[in-house]
Amino acid sequence: MSNYLLRSSFSIPLPRFIPLDHFRFRKQCRVWYRSYCKNRNNQVEIMEHVVFDGPEVMVGDLQLLQNKISSVRLEGPSKLQVIADFDGTLTRYWIDGQRGHSSHGLLQQGNPEYDLKRQELYDHYHPLEIDPTIPLDEKAKLMEEWWEKTHGLLIEGGLTYGAIQSSVAKSRIAFREGVTELFELLEKNDVPVLIFSAGLADIIEEVLRQKLHRSFKNVNIVSNRMVFNENGNLVSFKGKTIHVLNKNEHAIDMAGPLHDQLGDDNGSTADVSSVKSRTNVLLLGDHIGDLGMSDGLNYNTRISVGFLNDNIESSSDSYRNAFDVVYMNDASMWGVVKLASQLCSIVAD
Ligand SMILES: [Mg+2]
């Protein structure tokens, strides 16, 4: 446990008797990491209960985080839901020194002409997506245009479900260590997990199938869902298009019934009304925009966890301000497992 280090602001004075080897200075982020904090009685305690995964974590406001953890615990797991982004959040950013594939990026249509056409769309629209000068409403229209053209090409190019299976098998995509254990813990506590993605639900499900080798009855995917005909060819998409700028709790309604979306028999028990009655949220994302996933949900307490995968030095301040907890350097999911376990633990009377 002594290896667990927690990074925080300088707002709490450092107690004199803490040995210096409990502090480290990381040049990369120019911040101190520490393993101790003061409790209300002015005593120093090891933050084992909110300390996560080695020196890869930072917390902007410890007290606020502790208060939120206490509130969520008090209301119990029956009021909790987890909302998670998929790419770069549940999945690793780097794999064997290379960027991991995204769920969209891994897809090879089995038709080089159409793969190229989708790449051309990416080359045109991606710069617009990241252009900070384009107003949001205008950008949302462009994103919708991009997604619909891409979906059109997938249909026109004759995408088959078999192509999805072989694309996933060949892809460079992997879950963070601890994701299975996180889902298991939440399943055991009947806490639903909604995976929100502007990608393709069918691909994400196939990734779950191939990489986790099991399904979870508490895990649901809110994303663009395909309709295949009896020959296994893609013929249409269900519901409204979910793109990067409308990926939020409203997407549940836009995408159609959850049971329908699940498509297969993984025995999901979640439905929209039960999700909406769960007023505490553990949100996981890797972009500040992912915080919008809880828009449309009238939550009491939200604990947000951000994975800062790239541009760590320049983005650490904004991430620390935006998220309650931030993991860096492609950290594992073990810290979130610990946090979730804390949130689901019974509060003694
Ligand atoms: Mg992401």
UniProtKB/TrEMBL annotation:
SUPFAM superfamilies: HAD-like
Catalytic activity entry: a ribonucleoside 5'-phosphate + H2O = a ribonucleoside + phosphate
Protein's GO biological process: nucleotide metabolic process
Keywords for this protein: Hydrolase, Magnesium, Metal-binding, Nucleotide metabolism, Nucleotide-binding
EC number: 3.1.3.5
Pfam annotation, one family: UMPH-1
Any GO MF annotation of the entry: 5'-nucleotidase activity
GO cellular component, one term: cytoplasm
Recorded family membership: Belongs to the pyrimidine 5'-nucleotidase family.
Protein name: 5'-nucleotidase
